[in-house]
Design goal:
Layout lengths: L2 E6 L8 H13 L2 E8 L12 H11 L4 E6 L4 H15 L5 E5 L13 E4 L8 H9 L6 H12 L5 E11 L4 E7 L2 E5 L1 E4 L7 H13 L3 E2 L3 E8 L10 E13 L8 E8 L3 H6 L8 H11 L2
Parallel strand pairs: 1-2, 1-4, 2-3, 4-5, 6-12
Antiparallel strand pairs: 6-7, 6-9, 7-8, 7-13, 10-12, 11-12
Length: 297
């Protein structure tokens, strides 16, 4: 008898009826069933929120006799196929396998030596929609709160990329700075880069427009990068690293908007004393000093 191998992700909060019918139907045709769970290289994401151990426990709870093993994603379909074959033949030598996988996410990408069988369809179940149904639900239970801790503990420590912009005018003798309503300190214009930004230069121009209105400037020029000791992340493992860009003002009236409460042009020669007097945001001291050292003559 051949050994059945189901290759899937099971990235759902529970095994739905389609999963159950699939596993039970395949099990009736074989004396032994192995489930290979695809493992993403990214720890905790919206598409892959559940790690291998969580999904293994979910499967073993309802199907304790099923063998569950991880198979890691790989950028090369050929290498991934070889790894899958080697995993099965090394752990279970002298066995014959039938690989069950979907028509869309498995069979077109597998190029190994084992027999493949297209998984039968069992209803119109959408894993993405199922995850979205539970994405914003809060449950009053110890297990739910423990699960949140587990999820955050098993994420990679992150660096959040931000952009800051030095807008110059009058041959780089003046610089535009802003104030936020929650902090009465002068600072550079900027904010977080977004996944939709085409580049960090694009992010810098977007932030400039959002916080200062429609200004016409020269192209963004990269200046430097630096760790930012943002007050929101001082006690967190995750941190911020910003990229500083500069541009030359051409036309337009700077108008404070978004989370900027005030905008003002300053003589670059006054910046060292402003820093010494504590009038500028400490988070931007290193960035301002970099500009002073480069442009103050």
């Amino acid at each position: 008898m051949t050994t059945a191998v189901i290759i899937a992700r099971f990235q759902t909060p529970y095994l739905h009826e389609g999963h159950q019918k699939l596993i039970e139907q395949v099990s009736t045709k074989h004396t032994k069933l192995i489930i290979l769970l695809g493992v993403s290289p990214i720890k905790g994401s919206r598409k892959n929120p559940y790690d291998y151990y969580t999904r293994e426990r979910m499967l073993k709870k309802d199907y304790p006799d099923v063998i569950v093993l991880p198979v890691s994603d790989h950028p090369s379909d050929k290498a991934w196929s070889e790894n899958l074959d080697n995993l099965l033949t090394s752990v279970f030598p002298n066995e014959e396998f039938w690989l069950y996988g979907s028509r869309d996410s498995f069979i077109p990408y597998y190029s190994g030596k084992l027999q493949t069988v297209e998984l039968p369809s069992h209803g119109d179940y959408n894993a993405t929609q199922l995850r979205e149904q539970y994405a914003d639900k809060v449950f009053d239970s110890k297990d739910f709160r423990a699960g949140i801790l587990y999820a955050y503990h098993n994420q990679y420590t992150k660096v959040y990329p931000t952009v800051d912009v030095a807008v110059f005018r009058h041959n780089k003798t003046e610089i535009l700075l802003g104030k936020k309503s929650i902090n009465n300190k002068w600072r550079l214009i900027g904010g977080f880069a977004d996944p939709e930004d085409e580049s960090f230069e694009h992010a810098a121009m977007r932030e400039l427009t959002e916080e200062c209105g429609l200004l016409k400037t020269s192209c963004m020029v990269y200046e430097t990068s630096a760790h930012v000791n943002d007050w929101r992340y001082r006690n967190e493992a995750d941190k911020i690293i910003t990229l500083l860009f500069s541009c030359d003002y051409e036309t337009g009236e700077p108008i404070a908007q978004d989370d900027i409460a005030d905008l003002q042009w300053f003589d670059l020669q006054h910046l060292p004393q402003m820093i010494a007097d504590g009038l500028t945001s400490p988070e931007h001291t290193a960035l301002l000093n970099s500009l002073i050292n480069k442009y103050l003559k």
